[in-house]
Write a structure and sequence with these properties.
Helix content: 10-25%
CATH superfamily of the largest domain: Zn peptidases
Shape: globular
Radius of gyration: 21 Å
Bound molecules: zinc ion
Number of domains: 2
CATH topology of the largest domain: Aminopeptidase
CATH class of the largest domain: Alpha Beta
Largest sheet: 13 strands, mixed
Number of helices: 10
Structural class: alpha+beta
Length: about 425
């Protein structure tokens, strides 16, 4: 896939989208923790070798970033909007040559990882008749997150290869072992999304991650990783992105009226590993685990289809009647201070003011009741389902409305002393509340 004027086209896209959105954006100056700090604090691991895993991932991340051949264009997404010149080329993926204008179902297998039996999962590919970038959609990296599985199916089966510029690769179920068991984790209770880009000589999780990253993800020019909330929590459909990376920012601007949340990815997540390898990546979160939620699925599909149009891969469709949603540069989880039965007084998407009642926690034995109030003015972008909670349980995720300057690029990130406590992304990863 060749392009003649990638940077110029990227600028046009970025400027156009910025102008369209600028009037409604809420901006802020706070920046979350430095991405380089994230790896050290990740403790969301149910195995006893979390420490060796951390160093393993860190070492392999560097090695693999060097090993993966660099992309021919230095701003991968720019390819997306330069479809006017050149001819579409066959796509070589998983030992298969996919001709322009064709649709195919391949199979990826991390070969003989479990009891010597290969476990394979489908990889859907639509290679457009026109030249363009390769956009990848991945779902169920956590095996119990079903909404994304259906989103990938809907998006991929709705594409017309004759009218598509570039290619779309959809992997509906990355963690097929977890999916079969209805579990977030791999059979060895590791979280696959803490092991990217993987290690061919590491743990089972690291090997699966490495196989997937080199065989599939390395072929992408941009990536959208689909997730839901975890552990009986649901998320308002939202894009999570490191808004200090300009290529990632450009990607977020294509999704239409979706909430965008600044979130620096932890080392080991697919989002982090892909972006480090020069492939701008975002997470699309929608709904909760272990169920199919049609409204969330439709919202996500609409966002992805809008992106496909916005980056020039398909003719423009007008999908959104609503105004763009604000960008939240900061967010905070409100935690339970007592244990008991949590009942919410707000719903996903509710607008809240500082001091508003979010929910109550009632001790089922003593009947003592406590209230949770919002410390911020903002919007409920994630929340726990009604359930029994312990003190410290993260119950409501508030996107904080602010009116400050946008975040700086990574090189200008503030010193640690200025990092606001409530933007500490590492806590989210520890609690499994981020992808
Ligand atoms: Zn997830």
């Amino acid at each position: 896939m060749t392009s003649q004027h990638p940077k110029k086209a990227l600028c046009h896209l970025a400027i156009g989208l910025l102008l369209a959105a600028a009037s409604t954006w809420v901006v802020a100056a706070e920046v979350a923790v430095d991405p380089a700090d994230n790896g050290a604090n990740i403790r969301d691991d149910t195995t006893d070798d979390a420490d060796s895993r951390s160093s393993e991932v860190a070492a392999m991340a560097q090695e693999l970033v060097e090993a993966v051949p660099s992309h021919p264009q230095d701003v991968p997404l720019a390819e997306a909007v330069t479809t006017a010149e050149g001819l579409a080329e066959p796509l070589l993926l998983l030992d298969t040559e996919i001709a322009p204008g064709s649709t195919i179902r391949l199979s990826w297998s991390a070969t003989e990882l479990f009891e010597g039996v290969p476990v394979s999962t489908p990889v859907l590919v639509v290679n457009g008749a026109l030249p363009g970038p390769t956009l990848c959609l991945t779902a169920a990296v956590h095996g119990d997150e079903l909404n994304g599985v259906e989103m990938v199916r809907r998006v991929l089966h709705d594409l017309n290869a004759e009218k598509l510029s570039g290619a779309i690769i959809g992997v509906p179920i990355v963690n097929v072992q977890g999916f079969r068991r209805g579990s977030r984790y791999l059979p060895d209770r590791r979280d696959l999304n803490r092991y990217f880009p993987g290690n061919p000589k590491g743990s089972a999780a690291a090997r699966i991650a490495h196989s997937f990253f080199t065989n599939v993800v390395a072929h992408c020019d941009a990536l959208v990783d689909l997730h839901t909330g975890s552990f009986e929590r649901a998320n308002l459909p939202q894009i999570r992105a490191d808004l200090r990376n300009p290529d990632v920012v450009t990607l977020t601007q294509g999704f239409g009226a979706m909430v965008i949340l600044h979130s620096s990815p932890a080392v080991g997540t697919l989002r982090h590993a892909a972006t480090e390898a020069g492939i701008p990546a975002v997470t699309l979160e929608a709904g909760g685990p272990s169920q199919l939620e049609l409204n969330e699925v439709k919202h996500g599909v609409k966002g992805i289809q809008t992106l496909i149009s916005a980056i020039g891969m398909m003719r423009k469709k007008r999908l959104w009647a609503a105004d763009p949603e604000p960008v939240y540069y900061r967010s905070s989880w409100v935690r339970a201070d007592s244990g008991g039965i949590l009942l919410a007084d707000v719903s996903l998407g509710s607008t809240v003011r500082e001091g508003d009642l979010l929910g109550t926690i009632t001790d089922p034995m003593s009947n003592a009741r406590s209230e949770l109030h919002s410390p911020y003015t903002g919007r409920i972008i994630g929340m726990a389902r009604n359930q029994v909670v312990m003190p410290g349980f993260a119950a409501f995720h508030v996107g904080i409305a602010t009116a400050e300057a946008p975040v700086d690029p990574p090189v200008e990130a503030p010193a640690e002393s200025t990092v606001h406590e409530d933007t500490d992304a590492s806590d989210d990863y520890v609690d499994g509340m981020s992808e």
